[in-house]
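Subject: complex prediction, re-run

Hi both,

The earlier run crashed halfway through, so I resubmitted it with identical inputs.
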Amino acid sequence: MPESTDLKQREEAHWAKTSRLMLTHLGVWFFFGYVIHMFVVPLNKITIPILNFPLGFYMAAQGSLIVFVVMLFMFAKQQDKIDREFGFAEED
Amino acid sequence: MAIKAGSSDFLSNLGRVYGMYTGGFLAFVILIAVLEQMGVPNRILGYLFVFFTISVYAIIGIMSRTAQVSEYYVAGRSVPAFYNGMATGADWMSAASFVGMAGTLFLLGYDGLAWVLGWTGGFVLVSILIGPYLRKFGAYTVPDFLAFRYGGNVARGLGVLVLVACSFTYVTAQIYGTGIIASRFLGMPFELAVFAGLVGILVCSMLGGMRAVTWTQVAQYIVLIIAYLTPIIILSTKNYGIPIPELTYGQAIADITAREQQMIASGLATVANLKPHISPFINYTPLNFFAIILCMMVGTASLPHILMRYFTTPSVRAARQSVAWSLLFIFLLYFSAPAYAAFSKLEVYTNVIGRDLTAIRPWIFNWGELGLVKICGQNAASIDAIVAACKAIADHPGVVRLQDFIINTDVIVLSTPEIAGLPYVISGLVAAGGLAAALSTADGLLLAIANALSHDVYYKMIDPNAPTVRRLMVARVLLLIVAVVAAATAATKPGDILAMVGWAFSLAMAGNFPALVMGVWWKRATSTGAVCGIIAGFGLCLFYLVTTRYFPGAGVKYFGMTSLLNPITGAPLVDLAKAMALPNAMETWPTVAHPLVNKVGWFGLTNIACGMLGAPLGFAVIYVVSLLGKEPSKEMQAYVDDIRKPRGRTVLEEKTT
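This time it finished cleanly. Structure:
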């Protein structure tokens, strides 16, 4: 049954790509959720010009949050693109 | 059919309906402002605010009542992504966020940002790992998914147990918050206010289930975000000339840091009692700081009342977009909270600390009368009161020093309108916003509990042949019972809201997260593995929580727990040898004042982050036990494939009539 092997292959390729996207986003999430805040002490020595925020504080109070919001809108787009590519997206 | 037509009419006009609603609300605020200028007393204005907003929520709740099962449980899966985002925002942001968050940041400075990060970053996990897949699965409740994926009622029962444990802890804190706001602004006794708030919650959720809750939550979001941002935008414009507080508070932070140095130099504060606002890891050790962030994030992705919001979207694609909208709407409040903290702190450091006792600004006294601000150990009710209190202290210099000043953290948001010298109408607006935040979260939580009990326990486990009418009846009766029990618990003032909410997140994380993630991402996960994993993970978290809170002596004696560490010095918080020698060392169910309570544990880990122990164990157990057993059936693996593809019908098809 060529059709079902084709489906199987598409499923696997779709899932491989989905998993890669997941890992990329988790990496970004981990970096902005944790790694960057481990360097808060040196980052606080830098002050953002005009606004006067210490950079370490700013990242935890606003910077990482902005990254999370942008990430989620991007993720929705990217995952939809993957779903469409393999013909698994819902009809519009 | 008439209802159906009416609802699609409503859905296509959402923008206009909520636009008119927002305009109406603003007009109402202006009307109150005019009444205030005409000399109507504040107490009456406060009542008008509360009654007007609660009746609007009630009207929406009554208008969207429903007798259809799918409308009742998942709002007919027709809520557009944008509006579901708003509803999730209101569902998510509770009294703890609205009233408590800014106060926590005021007190803890940088370390308080652990909560800000933890309560936003979790939505990344919701969208990437779990939410859209559960939507495709087609569940009504989270235990529904566990039952299907892990074959049967054992997994379902455990899912219900986890759901009830974390949601009940959480809802108690919300009803408590409702009581505090109502009692402060309406002058009702606290216990009465708790039950009055309860009526407001029930009108919205009882009649129309998820559908009614969704459309009231959208309305509540609009009120709460306007209320949160208005005072601080005015304050920012007044002080810095720019109406964007999120940008201008950087200057306030710089001023605070400069003022901190000055206070130490002039003897108003000491190095020992001043906690610099931007210094990290002075309230939490680095371990606990990052553990709290992780537990709040993972807990977000495991809390049933949040996950079930994404069951209501029309498609999987919309579910993903909806998570992004949710976080945007939540972000608007969370990235403003540090501005509240900074402006308040600057006001306190410059206009309270270092002031002559007789020249203190009058906003302090309004809160001092309520016992929420203390100067020199006494309620700061008037100038005479604080002068007398400070005289009693030997060598008092006659100006307020840092150690003389104590403020309840709830005051920060509520007092900002007065600090900025704004009329009472803005204070009333803030109170209405706080109430909206508490009510909307309580609605969502009660619905989650009642749905699990009526759908999972009653319909799926006890009587699978129950007719629709009886199922919905059972849901409503259970909702009422759960609500009354939660209110009765809240009326006993069980304590610290932030800690209680933190426990709810950790319990959800340990109980739900491993089983949900592996259910979608690992086909090899078996029923036995999941059941063992939930029991082990949730059990360990619960054990750690209960032992450190209620049996700390036993924890030290039998389970090798040690004292948590002081984040600045790294020394133990309690001297265990001494504390264990005290006669009350082995006391069980002690109050928070007990020397060992919440201060012992393993690896110096605070019990708020008990999910850090439970979730990894859950993952490990599911992995090992699954590999020991037989692979799940081909059919089950095919279902998992189905969940992963947005196209096609939902896996679970419920009878809808």
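Residues 5 and 41 of chain A are 55 Å apart (CA to CA).

- K.
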